[in-house]
Amino acid sequence: MLPRSLFLIFCLFCLWGGICIPQYTPHTIIPVYTYRVVHTYPHDPSAFTQGLVYEKADTLIEGTGLYGQSTLRRINLRTGTILDIHPLPPPYFGEGVTLYKDTIIQVTYKEHTAFVYDKETFEQIGTFTYDTEGWGVTFDGTSIIMSDGSATLYFFDPCTFEKVKTLSVYDDNGPVTLLNELEFIKGEIYANIWLTDRIACISPHSGAVIAWIDLEGLLPEPFQETADVLNGIAYDAQKNRLFVTGKFWPYLYEIELVPPDSVGSPPDSPRTLIEFII
Ligand SMILES: [Ca+2]
Asked: Which of 7, 18, 80, 194 gives 180 a disulfide partner, CB atoms 3.0 to 4.6 angstroms apart?
């Protein structure tokens, strides 16, 4: 066996040379966080939520889906009131939304089209196209990041909308598919996994899932029959508030993450390969 110091030097050499080292071993345990509800807010139960992003001063931008029912809306966090709404024409099924400078970007499901709106007026000021389906979208400060329901995330230049790279997402069981609504939070990409109560916390550098958030039971059982799945993550960076909701959910929740017993702190920074090794 290599001495520890030599092994680390070997790893650094491999990284420098671009050799891929699997990050997960049979002994890797990905922490699973649970949650504590901080506040419960009203949410339009007719909203088929496909995208959610915090704007400012207790307002959020929400994108809703379904053909003939898709909208872009500005909502009041505390009351759930719709402050502004823009319907999408029937050929378009609205999906994720994100903010970029003074604009809102809304992607669509199978129409290969993203709409660019003026953030204040909701006036459509541009479009761009992409090859895949559009599911979730977020902005990491450099790139627009989009999911398409696969295990791949797509990074676009926010000015030219050229695709600049892709990222394969995986955990200790292999590719993680059905990546849906996204939010970039403190250096990590959070992604709803469609049809589950789970959110993956993804390293934007490696694509590795570095933590899971299990939101099972967040929506009380009586509402689960009429509601659809968890979908919608928003983050208020100024006040460090995390919000989640779902399709046809009557509530929008501010939650805090609760670490598993074996882990001492929330996943607030990406883990590096060396940290995995050590
Ligand atoms: Ca989001």
From this structure: 194
